[in-house]
Amino acid sequence: MSHQAAVSHRPDPLSRRYRWSTNFIHAPLFFLFTAAFGSVSLCVSLFEKHGRIQHRIAQAWARACVWSSGSHLTVRGAENLLKHPVAVYAANHTSYMDTPVIFAALPFQFRILAKKELWPIPFIGWHLNRSGQIPIDAANPRASLSSLTAASKTLRAGMPLFVFPEGGRTPDGTLQPFLNGAAFLAIRAQVPLVPIALSGVYDLLPMGTRHFYPGRLTLTVGEPIPTTGLTLRQADELTQQLRAAIESLQHPTQP
After folding, report:
1. Which of 54, 62, 131, 203, CA to CA, is 20 to 30 A from 251?
2. Residue 66: inside a domain, yes or no?
3. pLDDT band at 254 (very low <50, low <70, confident <90, very high)
4. Does 201 reside within a domain?
5. DSSP secondary structure, 109-139, as one string
6. Which is it for strands 111-115 and 134-136: parallel, antiparallel or unpaired?
7. What pLDDT score was predicted for residue 149?
8. What's 58's domain CATH number?
9. Residue 191 φ then ψ, to 5°
10. Which residues contact 203 (CB under 8 A, 6 or more apart)?
11. Is 164's pLDDT higher than 90?
12. Least confident interval from 20-24, 105-109, 119-123, 171-175
């Protein structure tokens, strides 16, 4: 299995220009949009049962956050997002900005399986809780099993699901080992597993920093991987297939 390092163009350290633009433009706008859209989402949740309006609010928040970061987002392979009404979508986890990019790019309602540490965060956690997103505690196997059960029910109810199979953000831009949760859920529900590769988002706001480095962001969607007829014993094999697909989308073969 390849562990080719991701190419990063982010300077280290960042120049004063980027630190000042983050402190006085990008970060204030990000927190303003998060507070504003989070408050609206919380109010809507008091009377909205199906989460459709809340999801649209989350999409608007995400697009505003990407815009406020000074970056440009391109979606490739968008046709693969519409091939199946229900699927498990899985992407590499590179940055604090991955979640806004995902919500900005995916054109339909879905639920996200996310670390429970996000739930106490004001506005973001409130939206996650009230909009039916699914927390997972990777350190607690019993709680993780409960989360996977809830996620399976979501798929069976006809709602697509999004997962970061690495379980956490990459510390250096390289693709980390995958957990089996995404494959387990796709096999259990007998729905396709759709690989997604994020590029440029690591440079924008990697782990361990608070300063934005705006640039071109790319979300590339691969061909759905069918799971019909697979059993849970094949979850490891499917996980490796998913990881290889995402890695190939990150590093396409040059002609």
Report:
1. 62
2. yes
3. very low
4. yes
5. --EEEEEGGGTTSTTHHHHHHHTT-EEE-TT
6. parallel
7. 86
8. 3.40.1130.10
9. -120, 160
10. 8, 9, 10, 213, 215
11. yes
12. 119-123
Residue identified by tokens 């309006």 is 53
Domain assignment present for 222: yes
pLDDT band at 177 (very low <50, low <70, confident <90, very high): very high
Quick check: is 92 in a domain? yes
75 three-state secondary structure = strand
Question: Which residue range is the domain that position 92 belongs to?
Answer: 16-250
Distances (CA, A) of 19 to 26, 28, 30, 213: 10, 13, 15, 9
Q: What is the pLDDT averaged over residues 74-87? A: 95
The pLDDT tens digits of the residues spanning 100-125 come to 999 999 999 999 998 888 788 887 78
- How does DSSP assign 142-178, residue by residue? HHHHHHHHHHHHHHHTT--EEE-TTSS--SSSSPPPP
Domain count, the chain: 1
Nearest residue to 124 (alpha-carbon basis) of 232, 195, 37: 37
Q: What is the DSSP letter of 255?
A: -
Q: Are 62 and 106 in contact (CB under 8 A)?
A: no
Dihedral (C-alpha) 144, 171, 65, 74: value to the nearest 10 degrees? -100
Let me know: does 90 contact 167? Beta carbons within 8 Å.
Answer: no
Nearest to 225 by CA among 185, 186, 177: 186
pLDDT of residue 114: 81
pLDDT tops 70 at residue 2? no
Distance (Å) of CA 228 to CA 47, 61, 102: 38, 36, 26
Lowest-pLDDT range, 88-102, 117-131, 159-173, 175-189?
Answer: 117-131
150 touches 134 (CB < 8 A) = yes
